[in-house]
Structure prediction request, 226 residues.
Amino acid sequence: EAGVVQSPRYKIIEKKQPVAFWCNPISGHNTLYWYLQNLGQGPELLIRYENEEAVDDSQLPKDRFSAERLKGVDSTLKIQPAELGDSAVYLCASSLEGYNSPLHFGNGTRLTVT
Amino acid sequence: DQQVKQNSPSLSVQEGRISILNCDYTNSMFDYFLWYKKYPAEGPTFLISISSIKDKNEDGRFTVFLNKSAKHLSLHIVPSQPGDSAVYFCAAYRNSGSRLTFGEGTQLTVNP
Prediction:
């Protein structure tokens, strides 16, 4: 089966600019996650979707971050405006049904804000 | 509040020997514990898991041990191979709607 696909792989932007990341989960996976990974740290959840519904977005900084999962398949994560501290790897993952099935991660987008 | 901690940032072992990666947690309500492996420039991949009702789970060269009284789990890899060199994350969650919480990761290097 095809894995979780993320694009772009790398993105360099200046602070205050907008940026968007795209994720295509594994076909049939109802749950989609966006994680943030800082250097030397484990992934931290930003938002979790069950189909098209965001069921856990308590860690998403809503003043500048937004996400959507239209039709319960692909998802986009947007930052506007980006800050220097947003430099990190943004990981998308999907699973068949919540945490009871293993999460499959994409290769991530490495964001550098200058 | 770091509920899952991996206190060793790195571990180096010789090929063929045993690798033991450790993880401590503070939340006694966790129901499941998992290990993920991550190669550079790739996302983490699921390795092995264990339910809180068990104390051991084995899959080939990988065994996870859970000590609930000590709130400690460990991953044993035997024999270790150079291809096992990666960052290993432990993670845990509760069934009742909590999120999957990851540790900081341990870089394992297996020397030929």
In short: DSSP finds no helices and eleven strands in chain B. The mean pLDDT of chain B is 95.
